[in-house]
Amino acid sequence: MKHIQEFDRFAKSYQDYKIIQSKVAKYLVEKTPQKGRYILDLGAGSGEVYRAIEWDFECFYAVDLAANMLALHPSYRVRKIFCNFDDDTCFVKLKKLPIDQIFASSSLQWSKDLNRVFKNIAAISSNLSCALFTSNTFATIHQLLGISSPIYPAKMVLEVAKSFFKVEYEIKEYKLFFPNRRLIFDYIKRSGVSSGKKRAKIADLRQLLRNYPYTYLEFEIIFLWCQK
Ligand SMILES: C[S@@+](CC[C@H](N)C(=O)[O-])C[C@H]1O[C@@H](n2cnc3c(N)ncnc32)[C@H](O)[C@@H]1O
Q1: What is the pTM of this model?
Q2: For the chain, what percent of residues have pLDDT higher than 70?
Q3: What pLDDT is recorded for position 44?
Q4: Per-domain residue ranges for the chain?
Q5: Does 21 sit in the ligand 1 pocket, CB within 6 Å?
Q6: What is the DSSP code string of the chain?
Q7: CB 18 near ligand 1, within 6 Å
Q8: What does pLDDT average to over the chain?
Q9: Ligand 1 site-directed mutation target among 64, 88, 113, 152, most atoms within 8 Å of CB
Q10: pLDDT value at position 142?
Q11: CATH topology of domain 2-135+151-173+221-227
């Protein structure tokens, strides 16, 4: 999977570029009513959800498919589990664990099959707090390039979540400002927000680099607090 290879490749630089993902994880955790003792984090990466949790817990299960991201995850009271959340066999393993709370921050937008992942989550837990980047992230760039976003629209995420859970949700927009355009494009490459797929021609990207009208990037995140 191309995006996993990119997370592995840029795991170290992700640490300097995860500004929005850190904010997202903090907000997601802060607004979650439960304070679980056995916590599962899907797409845990290098630990933004873990860092945002301020209560005492027994065990934190950090699931990820990028070994270099998991290597940077804190270890205290953590069990690192290398598995693919799009794969049913991953959930067969997870089902055996005493989980009472699930988080997924800035990760499920990469799911190949949202319906399947929500179904699997609902089978092992009665609650899920998750935040997904939506297709309105980098909307201007996609528009200028005439390409579609590789990730899901908020409406679709919400529909899928609602078919398995009662859902409270919020859609938030963020802007990240940069001193120059070159840094904007470095950010996209190294932050784990792009899919790692080259969907536009190099010449178009060069032109975009010259013509991009803003000094900021646009992000849209849907936060979902789900209960059965
Ligand atoms: C943008 S990072 C977010 C990491 C962390 N949750 C945070 O907030 O910083 C997305 C993470 O999801 C992981 N990921 C993406 N698809 C995955 C999959 N199918 N199975 C397991 N992990 C996956 C990536 O390897 C990456 O570490």
Answers
A1: 0.93
A2: 95
A3: 98
A4: 2-135+151-173+221-227
A5: yes
A6: -HHHHHHHHTHHHHHHH-HHHHHHHHHHHHT-----SEEEEET-TTTHHHHH--S--SEEEEEES-HHHHHTS--TTEEEEE--TTSHHHHHHHTTS---EEEEES-GGG-S-HHHHHHHHHHH-SEEEEEEE-TTTTHHHHHHHT---SS--HHHHHHHHHTTSEEEEEEEEEEEE-SSHHHHHHHHHHSS-S-S---S-HHHHHHHHHH---SEEEEEEEEEEEE-
A7: yes
A8: 91
A9: 64
A10: 87
A11: Rossmann fold (3.40.50)
